[in-house]
Specification:
This is Cysteine dioxygenase. InterPro entries: RmlC-like_jellyroll, RmlC_Cupin_sf. Residues 251-283 are annotated as: Disordered. The protein has 283 residues and is of the alpha+beta class. Helix content is 33%, strand content 27%. It has helices spanning 10-38, 42-48, 174-204, 228-253, and strands at residues 55-61, 65-72, 77-82, 87-93, 95-103, 111-120, 124-127, 132-136, 144-151, 160-162, 169-171, 212-213, 223-224, 264-266. A 5-stranded antiparallel beta sheet has the order 1-2-9-4-7. A 5-stranded antiparallel beta sheet has the order 3-8-5-6-14. β5 (95-103) and β6 (111-120) form a beta hairpin. α3 (174-204) packs across α4. The longest helix is centred in the C-terminal third of the chain and has 31 residues, at 174-204. It is globular. The N and C termini lie far apart (47 Å). 33% of the residues are buried. Residues 207-260 and 268-283 have low confidence and may be disordered.
Amino acid sequence: MPRSRRKFDIDEFVRACLEAWEADGADAVKDVLDRTLGRGCAPVRECFGDPREAHLQVLYAGPELVIENMVWAPGMSYPAHNHNTPVMTGVYAGLEVNDFYHPSPRIGGRLQRTETVDIGEGDAVLMGYDAIHRIANPNRRSFTGAFHIYMGDYLHSSRSIWYPDEASETAASFALTKDIFAAANRDLVTARALEAEPRHRKRKGTGGLTAVTLATGPAISGSTTGTATAGAATSNATAANAAALAAATAAAVGASGPRRGSKPRAGSGGPSRAHLHPPGEQG
């Protein structure tokens, strides 16, 4: 009789991380994360269920550790930011691309990219307290899911985010984070509507005029009928949204396609991996 697969339990995972932290600090917590992902990512995905939108879920918040479940929408990016505490990321679904930066005095303090690290499914990376990074899900069709574990009172610490561009440092806040996730989900709704439209057009072209309803975000609302006027309005709205979506996804993930595995790639300048710590260092 085949052995049943071990289920993932959130409370058990949190308890194991806390016990590891109290016993031996960051290295022990990373061991817990490595073992969890090493047993297989499928039980974790089954526990959290199929995502329908980008979201941030706080699994535990305390003065010693903050444990979050992060879900990135297809094509989503989160602007460059710091934590002022060591943090580890472990991916259980998809791919998380991390661009790392440091402020450059040569260009007036503007952020300069130093390297890119791809964290693939089943991989975990420990980052130093001074890390500044931008996160992206390069896949335009699937979600990325990851654990983010912060060592320290992350939720009550002062942090910075470079938004809306890499020259604009401002105080990070959960209100701004909420806005960024909301914008990503609006883009997702628009992308789904644009993807569904060719099927509506095909049905309309089979003969006669058929009512067409698009489930969309704020850019396209309500429903349209199969008249010439409504068809033109839908076409114009679709073209505008397609242009906006193309610009947003290009800015979010660049021209490159999905990459697999946790591999560092050199950036445009600065020392490589200065902020990443190999096993054995806490940062």
